Amino acid sequence: MYDFAYAKPASLADAVSLLSSDPEAKALAGGQTFIPVLKQRLNRPSLVVDLAKLGLSGITVSGETVTIGATTTHAAVANSAALQATIPGLAYLASLIGDAAVRHRGTIGGSLANNDPAACYPAAALALNAKITTDRRTIEADHFFQGMFITALGQGEIITSIAFPVPQAAAYEKFRNPASRYPIVGVFVGRFPDAVRLAVTGAGQSGVFRHKEMEQALSASFSPDAITGITTPADGMNSDIHASAEYRAHLVGVIAKRAVAKA
Q1: Which residues contact 133 (CB under 8 A, 6 or more apart)?
Q2: What is the 8-class DSSP label of residue 204?
Q3: Coil, helix or strand for 41?
């Protein structure tokens, strides 16, 4: 690691001030991506601002909305009885992330802010039409994810909570890399009274995306058979040592049908 200053503010205002005043400052949530990046010297922040004392964790259910604090860990999401009763697919998604050590340190807000193209949470946020609240505004998921590791967040902007509408049905399925457990392809589907939303992660070069053709078919008939025959172009799919673009494109259809069947 390179040398850097470290701060652990006790208030959101102080954290925002520290991050906004220094363009080289970086926020630390769970650190499951950030710490390895520091160890590999791929990032050289002047200041690391630890968000652990800001009181941004917790899960609440109000009416037809589940709100999750940004520093809530994956393990807390996975084990939440309230979430298992309202959006079990989201709790299941969290239970599949990494291993126990990662789940007890990694946070939902950190995952969304990082927007790794193979992260699981972005698919849930996009498919459930989540609203991501920061220290200064609320951003709809459709406008939040803007490309690989790119989001709508500005300099010093901190995610404080994520609000998920409760769907009629939802499910997540992923084809896992056996070592990292990242999705080679992951699909989250959410059914609402007026429409179906389906998001794909792990497959696209630009990160998470909605599969509009599948959404249209599923809105007319919510069954795995409704998306039989719908293909995903290999153009724009990731291709690496784990899977070719063509294989990922094929898997999108396979995993989507499994997600719909589970929902």
Answers
A1: 139, 159, 160, 161, 162, 163
A2: B
A3: coil
Q: What b-and-e string marks burial along 145-174, b requiring 16 or more CB atoms within 10 Å of the CB?
A: beeeeebebeebbbbbbbbbebbebbbbbb
Give this prediction's pTM: 0.96
Residues whose CB is less than 8 angstroms from the CB of residue 164 and which lie 6 or more positions away in sequence, other chains included: 65, 66, 67, 68, 87, 90, 124, 125, 128, 130
- Portions of the chain given CATH number 3.30.390.50: 168-263
> Beta strand pairing status for 65-69 and 59-62?
antiparallel
Amino acid at 206: S
Per-residue pLDDT of 161-219, as tens digits, reads 999 999 999 999 999 999 889 999 999 999 999 999 999 999 999 999 999 999 999 99
Rounded Cα gap, residues 160 and 54, in angstroms: 9
- The encoded tokens of residue 160 equal 């404080």
Residue 166 DSSP label: P
Distance (Å, whole) CA 16 – CA 89: 33
Rounded Cα distance between 79 and 82, Å, is 9
Sign of torsion over alpha carbons 114, 115, 116, 120: positive
DSSP 8-class letter at 167: P
Give me the architecture of the 168-263 domain, per CATH: 2-Layer Sandwich (3.30)
Phi and psi (nearest 5°) for 214? Answer: -65, -40
Q: And the tokens for 119?
A: 């992260």
| Per-residue tokens: 91 | 């709790």
Overall CATH class of domain 5-50? alpha beta
Amino acid at 146: Q
227, amino acid identity: I
Query: Which helix or strand (DSSP H or E) is residue 209 part of?
Result: strand 209-210
